[in-house]
Design brief:
Elements (H helix, E strand, L loop, with lengths): L40 E4 L5 E3 L7 H37 L34 E2 L5 E2 L9 H23 L5 H16 L8 H22 L3 H24 L9 H4 L12 H19 L10 H19 L8 H22 L7 H20 L6
Antiparallel strand pairs: 1-2, 3-4
Helix pairs in contact: 2-3, 2-4, 2-5, 2-10, 3-4, 4-5, 5-10, 7-8, 8-9, 9-10
Amino acid sequence: MAKKNNKKQPERTFDPRFDDPNEFGLEDPFAVSAAVPSPERGAYSSRGKQKPIKSTNDGGCLSLIGGFFQVLINALLLFLLFAALGFVVVIGGQALGILKPPTQPVVPVLPTLQIAAAPTTTPAPVEDTSTVNDSGDPTPASDSCDNPAEWWGLVAADYDTVLTAFALAYYAPSQPIADVIAAAQTSRDRAADQPFADCLLGTRQTLLDALDAQLDALRTLEAGDRPTAFTRSQEAAAQFASVLDGLWEQGVDTGADSAPSAGISRGGTSDCAGLGEWYAQLQPFLEAFNTSVLPAVDFLNALPDDIARARGETVTLSSGVRELSAPSCATLAQGAAQGMTDSFFAAVDFTFSGNPSGAAEPAVTYARNAVLLDVWLRWLGLTAG
């Protein structure tokens, strides 16, 4: 009896070149091509199934990163290669004269800008024969006082410009206050440059003090401190009155309403009977005007009720002054008091009626009459200078 061979025979694999598909159980004879061994799979079994082969690529992520760096390195090497080629081409071209090196652009050099100084208003040339002493103070042009009115003729316009400047800026601000200050400063400087006689040394200094005080009031007003500005303007007005008092003492006719023009000596004349009684009646009206009406009326900030009250009080004061009977020596003083209260009422009335620009002219008239009344009361000996 023959011995049975239990040794397992090796399994045949399908070879599409020699084997019959039906023999291996392939249902679709035309699927032979589908049974072609794939390098990624094992050999076919007896049933035509190809066995998978275990992948040896277990680091797929690392392989991807490695490939990325490989591409990056290749790109860098190509860039360096082309850069080197470009450098060689440029150097070679310049050496052969084919390429010219770039030249620096020409930048034009502009001349230094010269800013011209702002033009200043200069007065008409006046021959100045005054000198300056070692201390820097001006000395008179002459020792005589043959014609003191000549100096007043040179400074009168500037005196009036600065005197009325505050009234315009405070009661009728129709232009920027900076322009008012600039005009006042020009007038002050021009007045200071005029020649003067020895007898006018004190009067000239008083004028400069008045001009400076008014400028200080204007600058304080510009800064927004209206109450302080008003107080300083009143102080300046008293100094302006002192200027006229000094000129009248020298016999200078400062206008038709001045004492030299009227021929009234200091202290009055023999026909001044009743001067004291007249001033006693005038004084209460002036005190009410200066302490109650005038400081309380700020046309820029006043409420309509305040302006209406000031208007009513001014009417009462004007009527009271007009009814007074002044002696002949005080007629011009009475006119100044009447002009002061009437013009102030007109300024208030323009503002009350909604026309503040119309207050400019009466405000200027008020300022002139207030100074004129002050100097007349001093001249007549009714108030101290």
